[in-house]
Amino acid sequence: MAFLQQVKDGKFLQATLDLSLAFEGGEWTVSSGAHCQLLMRGVLQVTPADLNGNEKDIVLSSGVHGDETSPIELVQQLAEGVLKGDIIPAHRLLLIIAHPEAINAHTRFIDENMNRLFKGYNEERNIDSITANQLQQAVSLFYAGSTANTSDRWHLDLHCAIRDSEHYTFAVSPYSDKPTRSNRLFAFLQHAEIEAALLSNSPSPTFSWHSAEYFGAQALTMELGKVAQFGENDLERLAVFNAAMLALVTEPELPMLWEGDKLSVYKVTRTLVKQTDTFYFTFPANQANFTYFEQGKLLGGDEGVEYFSLEGGESVVFPNPNVALGQRACLLVKKTDVNFGEQVSVK
C-alpha cells in the first residue's frame, strides 16, 4: 500500500517506519471535518474544521530518542483517532514521530544525541542533524501558520527514561526568558497526575527548549515511565496522562485546578558537565533518577575537581558518565516551593 494511503487509513506509525516506501505528502479532510497535511515523514499537521480565533497551536512530539517507545504509541493512538474521525480536535496540532531511523534501530540515536541539536541550523553531517533541521523547520512553519487572534503555543515533547526513577512520570520545564511557565501549563501537569516537575535554570538545546526559546511556547520535556520495546509498554500506567492529553487536544480550555501538594517541584542547583575522559560518578551508572544524597556526599569528579552534595543535600537526575565531552553528565536538583501566579516561579 502506498505511503500516503497508509497514513490516511490511520497507520501513521507503520508508514513512518517503513523506509522502503518513498515519502508521499498530501492534504485531505477526514470525516470529522478536520484538515490533515502530511508535511514530511512522521510529521502530520491537523487543523480543526471550525476555527474561532481562540484555538491553541499544539505540538506533540515523540521518538526524538528512537528507543523510547511508549510516547510513540500514544502519538500513534491519537493520530489514528484523528485520521479516522473519532477524535475531533479543537486546536491546531502538529503530531510528530521524530526519528524513524533510530526507532527502527532500537537505539536512542544513530550518530549523535538528536535532543542536543535544536539550538538552530546544524551542519548536515549525519541523519540526526538532518532530521533535527527538518523538525525545526516544521515547527517554525507550524507556529507561523497560526490562525488564532492571540498566540497560544504549546509543545509537549514526549520521552521515557532509560533508568528507574523515584517519580514514574515527571516533566522538565526548559529555561527561557520568555513567559513559558504559565499556571495553565502547571495545572495541566496536575490534571495529568504527573508526579514531579523540574525547573531548569540554564538553556539546553533540546526540542522543547527550542519551542520555548524561539517561539514562546508553553513547552515541556515529558518523561513517561521507562524504556521498553514496542508491545511491552504498560500504557495503563499512562492512562491518566493520555486522557489529559486528549482533553488538551479536544476541549476549548481545561479547568484551572491547582493543589500545590500534588506535584513535587524541583529546581536545578547544578549541571555537571563532562570536561575530560576522567569524569566519574561514585554511584552506579544506572542510579535511579531523583536519588537523594545527603549533604557532603562525594558524588563524582573530573580532572582536578571533586563534586560533593551541597548544603541540604541534592538529588541526581539523568546521570550519564558516558556522554560526549562538553555535554551534561547529570543534573543536581532540590525540592522547592513555587509561587502559583500567572507564571509559576520558584519561591
Write the layout of secondary structure elements.
Blueprint: H1 3-8, H2 12-17, E1 26-29, E2 35-40, E3 43-47, E4 57-62, H3 69-83, E5 92-97, H4 100-105, H5 127-144, E6 153-161, E7 169-173, H6 183-191, E8 196-199, H7 207-215, E9 218-226, H8 239-250, E10 264-273, E11 280-281, E12 291-293, E13 298-302, E14 305-308, E15 314-317, E16 328-335, E17 338-340, E18 344-346
Parallel strand pairs: 4-5, 4-6, 6-9, 7-8, 8-10
Antiparallel strand pairs: 1-2, 2-3, 3-5, 7-9, 10-16, 11-13, 12-15, 13-14, 15-16, 17-18
Helix pairs in contact: 5-7
Description of the molecule:
The chain is of the alpha/beta class and 347 residues long. The chain folds into 2 domains: 3-261, Aminopeptidase (3-Layer(aba) Sandwich), CATH 3.40.630; 270-333, OB fold (Dihydrolipoamide Acetyltransferase, E2P) (Beta Barrel). Helix content is 23%, strand content 28%. The strands form 3 sheets. A 13-stranded mixed β-sheet has the order 1-2-3-5-4-6-9-7-8-10-16-15-12, sandwiched between helices. The protein is globular, with a radius of gyration of 20 Å. The mean pLDDT is 94.
Per DSSP E runs of 2 or more residues, the count of β-strands stands at 18
Name the CATH architecture of the largest domain: 3-Layer(aba) Sandwich
Q: What percent of residues adopt helix (DSSP H or I)?
A: 10-25%
Which stretches of 5+ consecutive residues score pLDDT under 50?
A: none
Overall pLDDT metric: 94
CATH level 4 superfamily of the largest domain: Zn peptidases
Order of helices and strands: HHEEEEHEHHEEHEHEHEEEEEEEEE
Organism: Photobacterium proteolyticum
Protein name: Succinylglutamate desuccinylase
Domain Succinylglutamate desuccinylase/Aspartoacylase catalytic: 56-248
Active site: 223
